[in-house]
Amino acid sequence: MLDQKIRVYWDKTMAPIGRFVGRSRISPNAVTLLGLLVQTAVAWLILDGAVVAAGLLAVVAGVFDVLDGAVAKARGLVSRFGAFLDSTVDRVSDALYFLPIAWLYAVDPDVPAHDDEWVAVLAMVTLVLSFMVSYVKARAEGLGFECKVGLAERAERVIIVVLGLLFDVIPIALAILAAASLVTVIHRIVHVRRQAAAGDP
After folding, report:
1. Which domain holds residue 98?
2. Looking at 21-25, 60-64, 165-169, which range is the least confident one?
3. Catalytic residue among 65, 90, 108, 115
4. Residue 151 is part of a domain; what is its CATH number?
């Protein structure tokens, strides 16, 4: 939802940055992989219990997440493989939020406040639901349906997780994200069902 509303304005903002970075001749795919490297560092900080620092670094990872597209457009290197790689790395990046959070709360809590196994379970549930949000859209569009609906697209998911890390309110952030993701999955299934009912014999 947020992604669709701000995409035009965001693209205009990122265009000059993409042109500037593009002058270095770095490829968009390299930017994508550098973002994954930063996200790995975010995961390490979460495992170490430094959740606020992880939130700050996650902002940098988020910049890389949109910078690759800006560089691709600036250099005229938009490609289907680039889009495929970006989506694949996005799923890995999602896992690099939720799996470390589950570990922090269930296996190796750094402080008593992070010693809650139910939060680890919630993190895993949220991970599955986040994957389902993306899968339902990809599968629907692969079958020719339009599926640009829902509350919890990737932009919203990342913002909620980052805020949860920055303010160390991870359980609240996970609960909000899990609920929003579930609503989004149901919304998208219903949306596609209506299209199918109107067009299928």
Report:
1. 2-199
2. 21-25
3. 90
4. 1.20.120.1760
